[in-house]
């Protein structure tokens, strides 16, 4: 749990109870106990009954150090037979042993090792959660008509603010500064596979920022730092100069395959105005942004970029081979058909519950 920085292991949760049961069985199998499952059930039974547990602790504390054999006879005579509880009967009663194990882990020796792909997947899962929050905060109309393009192309989660704010700011800034060259079709749904690419790019951008900012960090240490701080780059030590910070953001933008890495680096290193945060917080903190607020943010961010002195010129798409063009178009048609099918199913499911409550698909 401490290694992967997973947050689902809360005291009393189902994940915690399952982990405790598995840890007990593993310990008893490693100790070559003849009946590991049965003994694990007895321990869990003791933990599920506070009265029985306190009685056992008091009996054990009374045993003399020079006669440890007395413990068996004492427990056998005075302890009642406790049946193994049902799996769902052991709930919040395991909070105490979990907290006890958590305290012990702080004194355990730290083992230096390289982190596996599973730890990187925990970080990607965390990034995915921030993108879902950012999608929920964007106004539905603008997201379907305009901002889906800029979010999928340049809505990275690194920047001077918290991850959700960075996604929103990067998305709105790129749309305002580099608008599309042609009219966009209104998009009805954003699939997980569509988001996966920008999430992976954000992953590489975050790690590259930290490794450029702190030369002593390697990629594994950067991943651990990101999980410890919930992807908050502001928790890093301050850069000695604006140029050093801009260099770190340029490394992040390059690793994240941003369409305009130099422009984004200049924008992020200069975008620390309190007006951005006040606009986002005045709208209700975690509530959905209004169209007016998004418009004000676009004007504010574009003016902040113009102050850097860089010219915002949209590049023409690079020509590709005709065969590749047709393959890309075919893949797009397949995705759009799948999205329309999913959208119809979701709307049909919502329509069946219109009598109970009125829902609007974001």
UniProtKB/TrEMBL annotation:
Q: Which Pfam families match?
A: PIR2-like_helical (PF20235)
InterPro entries attached to this UniProt entry: PIR2-like_helical
PIR2-like helical domain span: 126-235
The name under which this protein is listed is PIR2-like helical domain-containing protein
Q: What is the lineage of its organism?
A: Eukaryota, Viridiplantae, Streptophyta, Embryophyta, Tracheophyta
């Amino acid at each position: 749990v401490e290694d992967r920085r997973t947050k689902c292991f809360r005291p009393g949760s189902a994940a915690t109870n399952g982990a405790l049961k598995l840890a007990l069985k593993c310990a008893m199998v490693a100790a070559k106990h003849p009946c590991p499952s049965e003994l694990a059930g007895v321990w869990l039974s003791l933990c599920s009954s506070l009265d029985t547990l306190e009685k056992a602790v008091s009996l054990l504390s009374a045993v003399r150090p020079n006669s440890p054999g007395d413990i068996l006879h004492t427990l056998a005579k005075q302890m009642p037979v406790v049946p193994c509880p049902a799996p769902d009967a052991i709930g919040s009663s395991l909070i105490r042993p979990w907290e006890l194990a958590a305290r012990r882990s702080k004194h355990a020796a730290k083992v230096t090792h390289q982190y596996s792909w599973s730890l990187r997947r925990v970080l990607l899962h965390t990034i995915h959660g921030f993108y879902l929050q950012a999608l929920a905060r964007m106004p539905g109309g603008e997201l379907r008509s305009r901002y889906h393009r800029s979010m999928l192309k340049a809505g990275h989660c690194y920047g001077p603010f918290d991850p959700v704010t960075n996604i929103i700011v990067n998305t709105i800034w790129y749309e305002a500064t580099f608008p599309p060259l042609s009219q966009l079709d209104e998009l009805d749904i954003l699939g997980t596979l569509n988001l996966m690419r920008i999430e992976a790019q954000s992953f590489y951008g975050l790690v590259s920022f930290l490794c450029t900012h702190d030369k002593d960090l390697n990629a594994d240490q950067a991943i651990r730092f990101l999980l410890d701080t919930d992807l908050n780059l502001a928790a890093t030590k301050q850069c000695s100069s604006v140029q050093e910070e801009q260099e770190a953001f340029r490394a992040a933008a390059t690793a994240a395959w941003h369409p305009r890495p130099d422009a984004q680096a200049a924008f992020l290193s200069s975008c620390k105005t309190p007006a951005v945060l006040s606009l986002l917080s005045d709208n209700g903190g975690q509530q959905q942004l209004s169209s007016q607020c998004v418009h004000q943010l676009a004007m504010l961010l574009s003016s902040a970029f113009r102050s850097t002195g860089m010219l915002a010129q949209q590049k023409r798409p690079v020509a590709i081979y005709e065969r590749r063009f047709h393959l890309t178009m075919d893949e797009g048609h397949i995705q759009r058909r799948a999205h329309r099918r999913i959208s119809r199913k979701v709307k049909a499911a919502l329509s069946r519950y219109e009598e109970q409550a009125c829902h609007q698909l974001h």
